[in-house]
Amino acid sequence: MVLMYGQALGNSLEARRLYQEAFPERRLPNHKTFANVVQRLRENGKFQPRFSDRGRERTERTLDAEEEILNVVENDPGISIRRLSYRVGVSPFVVWRTLHEQGLHPYHVQRVQHLKPEDLPPAEIRAHPEMITRTQQSFIRRAEACIRNGGGHFENFL
Questions:
Q1: What residue ranges define each of the domains in the chain, with the CATH number in brackets?
Q2: What is the pLDDT of residues 3-43, one digit of tens each?
Q3: Quick check: 37 and 1 in contact, CB under 8 A?
Q4: Over pLDDT 70: what percentage of the chain?
């Protein structure tokens, strides 16, 4: 199409006629398609349309709502999308999109606290004597197999 448009010196109707002569078995595109393809190639440097910068711009109200959504979620991380959309006054989709863009998920509480050694109860290992014997035998068998295979991954047994 681009070659035909070039041969026709930018005349879409002439490019369409040349295309029909060159490819009689193909479906004949509208003459505007030739100009559109060349224009897209000039603007984007490729034949596929750009999918970014499409659609309506986000309104200032939505941008303000996004900040409020993130503040509410920070204070109440277990809040549902429906309650959050009602509280902020935007659609549930706006809430979902805002959370999704920030890597957050509804009902997934993400607060983390650091545990200190005194927070954990003292651990005590109690094992049945038979279990200790099986573990020792298994270790010896696996270590021998590891040695036979050149000693790879022996650190797993330490």
A1: 2-44 (no CATH), 60-101 (1.10.10)
A2: 898 999 999 999 999 999 999 988 899 989 989 889 888 88
A3: yes
A4: 75
Backbone angles phi, psi at 115, to 5 degrees: -90, 140
Please report the DSSP string for the chain in residue order: -HHHHHHTTT-HHHHHHHHHHH-TTSPPPPHHHHHHHHHHHHHHSSSSPP-TT-SPPPPHHHHHHHHHHHHHHHH-TT--HHHHHHHHTS-HHHHHHHHHHTT--TT------PPPGGGSPPP-----HHHHHHHHHHHHHHHHHHHHTTSTTGGGG-
pLDDT at residue 98 above 80?
Answer: yes
Tell me which residue has tokens 């509208």.
30
| First-residue to last-residue Cα distance in the chain | 67
Residue recorded with tokens 């983390």: 112
Q: How many CB atoms lie within 10 A of CB 122?
A: 5
Q: pLDDT: is 93 or 149 the higher one? A: 93
Distance of alpha carbon 130 from alpha carbon 152, whole angstroms: 29
Q: Taking residues 100-108, what's their average pLDDT?
A: 77
